[in-house]
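In response to the reviewer comment on reproducibility (Comment 2.3), we provide here a single inverse folding case reported in full, input and output, so that an independent group could reproduce the run without further information from us. The structure tokens appear first.
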């Protein structure tokens, strides 16, 4: 039985508490969207699980969205269809209902990843596409210098690529997704060359890992990063990132074809 918050969130984060500004800071980036759309192939019907506010739903496909959180469903724009209230682990659809399925920045929220992946594969005739982060690479990001508790939390929450492969029945293909310097989707690595933007508390709140750390961690992060930006210490260590047009970090696309 999947445990859910009063908001309906089914993972370890309560989006009724932290999701209010999500749609303003986690806007889909068209270049990342292009990689997702390409992976979906020629699918006409697409299931989007953990759909949130509708980021990355392809406008040229017939999308059925699933989202357990009421706060996130309420942020879906009017031009998108309403989302079905359900969880990944208990999808209310018959076998082979969809040409393809997708989930973006969601698998780390599922209470039972294996069950959720099994359900995705069950209801999908064609490709299953997962946009996620490789936990083996998360802590290499410069954020670890300032808030190691946050990146350690992310590394712990994201399922390994081997777990995703096994849950989808094997044979998955994983490839890194390059992050553009002006990325509009505000996950942590999107700020690789724009560290000042992570001083915005709403930007941090839109990355759920911050909800798992104590106030002292957030206060130390702001104090230390502000000091290093003012003194030039951040730029001496990481300033080369400001001019890098793309960044290869932990962002990865996992593709499963039916076997």
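Designed residues, in position order:
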């Amino acid at each position: 039985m999947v445990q859910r918050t009063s908001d309906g969130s089914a993972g370890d984060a309560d989006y009724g508490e932290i999701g209010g500004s999500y749609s303003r800071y986690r806007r889909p980036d068209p270049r990342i969207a292009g990689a997702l759309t390409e992976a979906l192939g020629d699918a006409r019907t697409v299931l989007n699980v953990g759909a949130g506010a509708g980021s990355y739903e392809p406008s040229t496909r017939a999308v059925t969205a699933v989202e357990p959180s009421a706060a996130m469903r309420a942020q879906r724009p009017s031009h998108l269809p309403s989302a079905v209230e359900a969880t990944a682990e208990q999808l209310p659809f018959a076998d082979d209902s969809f040409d393809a399925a997708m989930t973006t920045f969601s698998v780390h929220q599922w209470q039972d990843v294996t069950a959720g992946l099994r359900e995705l594969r069950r209801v999908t005739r064609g490709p299953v596409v997962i946009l996620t982060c490789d936990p083996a690479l998360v802590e290499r990001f410069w954020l670890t210098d300032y808030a190691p508790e946050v990146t350690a939390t992310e590394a712990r929450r994201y399922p390994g690529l081997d777990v995703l492969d096994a849950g989808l029945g094997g044979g998955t293909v994983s490839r890194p997704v390059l992050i553009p310097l002006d990325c509009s989707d505000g996950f942590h690595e999107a700020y690789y060359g724009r560290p000042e933007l992570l001083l915005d508390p709403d930007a941090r709140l839109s990355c759920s890992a911050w909800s798992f750390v104590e106030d002292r961690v957030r206060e130390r992060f702001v104090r230390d990063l502000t000091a290093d930006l003012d003194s030039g210490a951040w730029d001496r260590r990481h300033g080369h990132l400001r001019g890098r047009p793309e960044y290869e970090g932990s962002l990865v696309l996992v593709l499963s074809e039916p076997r």
